[in-house]
């Protein structure tokens, strides 16, 4: 589904990703762990096409297409979803307005019919319920006045509505209390656990991985994957720390 | 009686950001022509969406005690469009102003307000939003005067501008002249670019750049019409402003 080969990327002229390679197949859940500043968010932004994140070398192929050639919104329409570590507040634009525009832009990009207002609201209600989020919150401005945990929950509602093929979830578990963590984790399983979908979880904690069990765990340090393994690697990291495991 | 009208120049404080070439060519008659309105005590008057003449306009409104005046407008046409609004507030009177300046091409467009709190207990609230593209200039010059015995004045003024590209300009010139001591006076001005983080967030969810920009601009200018009570009227003001803007930008880019 996604093949990243020798990816190098700079941010504000600083080399952050330095030869990162990673292959994710359909049906798999991967977890990336790594110390702060390792380049985890940079990986997500680079794959998402954020302006200012320049690829200097390497390639990324997503569902047979050159991902790096696509505009950010085209990457989304192609089936890529980026869950933000820090979801952005947009005063004056409601979630409903924004997500309907997003869903229908994606559908248009894929040559599908747009959802009517009624169809969209039904879908939004269903996904909000899945994440145990009050539908009224989706009538408010995007992320404005939301707590950290509510923002992360809202990210997952968006993922449910947009129904991507690959979700890259950047510290979706941070800011969540234990109950919310379970709701979000189970939401990820319901929405993304499927033979034709895949997930890349960026996280620091085993507790999310207890709910969304990864098939592969990677350690990102110094801009590249320095170690890969199975679910046990995450437990080992939690016990021994990044330094010991990557030394 | 024949009176000579002097055309102001940009050396005059109230005209400092004006388009000097347009000023020099201005019709002296238009410069000295005032649209005047008098609101009787307790009366109300509202100007909603009065189109700009595309030139210099001067409005003067005298609001009697307890009266209300509201003015909501969009400046979206004319190489040098200037709407001056001078409002004098009697005791307990109120003035609500929502203005949107849309700049395209080489145009200079500006709102210039002078709010005189002549007597106690009056309220004024001004919200101006500007979006400037190309090499346009968008300005808001807002002067608030509070007379010596105009205690319990509540005056607020807020201006924000978005510059869509390098080369576009916005100027803010708030001026406060306060002679009373029991006065609440809030003012703020900010000029910046379109929120890049919000634009990328929207793109990451599949919203194309033009649509994202439209949503952000809509939300931004909507602030100016937030105190229009009827939501349909509010929506009409926003939609008209956006439609005119799209049209102007399309023309500017052919
Ligand atoms: N906008 C930016 N400008 C300059 N440096 C940045 C920017 N964003 C991230 N960096 C740097 O890139 C490195 C990796 O950051 P990031 O990808 O956020 O790490 P992680 O998510 O693994 O904690 C850090 O050293 C950080 O300081
Ligand atoms: Mg990060």
Question: How would you sum up this structure, described in words?
Answer:
The complex is a heterodimer of chains A (247) and B (254). By secondary structure, chain A is α/β, with parallel strands linked by helices. Chain A has eight helices and twelve strands. Chain A has a single domain (2-86, 148-246), classed as 3-Layer(aba) Sandwich (Rossmann fold), CATH 3.40.50.300. In chain A, helix 6 (178-192) links the parallel strand 9 and strand 10. The longest helix of chain A has 16 residues, at 231-246. Chain A is globular, with a radius of gyration of 18 Å. With 254 residues, chain B is of the alpha/beta class. Chain B has helices at residues 20-24, 28-31, 196-204, 209-222, 231-252, and strands at residues 34-39, 44-48, 56-63, 68-75, 80-89, 94-103, 108-117, 123-132, 137-146, 153-163, 169-178, 183-193. Chain B is globular, with a radius of gyration of 19 Å. Chain A binds chain B through residues 48-51, 71-73, 75-77, 81-82, 84, 87-93, 97-99, 101-103, 105-106, 109, 141-142, 158, 162, and chain B through 195-198, 200-209, 211-212, 215-216, 218-220, 222-223. The structure holds adenosine-5'-diphosphate and magnesium ion.
> Which chain pair has the greatest contact?
A-B, 33 and 23 residues
The residue-averaged pLDDT of chain A reads 94
Largest sheet of chain B: 6 strands, parallel
N-to-C series of helices and strands of chain B: HHEEEEEEEEEEEEHHH
**Could you tell me the strand content of chain A as a percent range?**
25-35%
Cα shape of chain A: globular
CATH architecture of chain A: 3-Layer(aba) Sandwich
Distance between the termini of chain B: 50 Å
Protein structure class of chain B? alpha/beta
| Text of the CATH class of chain A | Alpha Beta
The kinds of small molecule bound in this structure are: adenosine-5'-diphosphate, magnesium ion
Question: What number of structural domains do the residues of chain A give?
Answer: 1
Runs of chain A with pLDDT <50, length 5+?
none
Q: How is the largest sheet of chain B built, in terms of strand order?
A: 1-3-5-7-9-11
The percentage helix of chain A is 25-40%
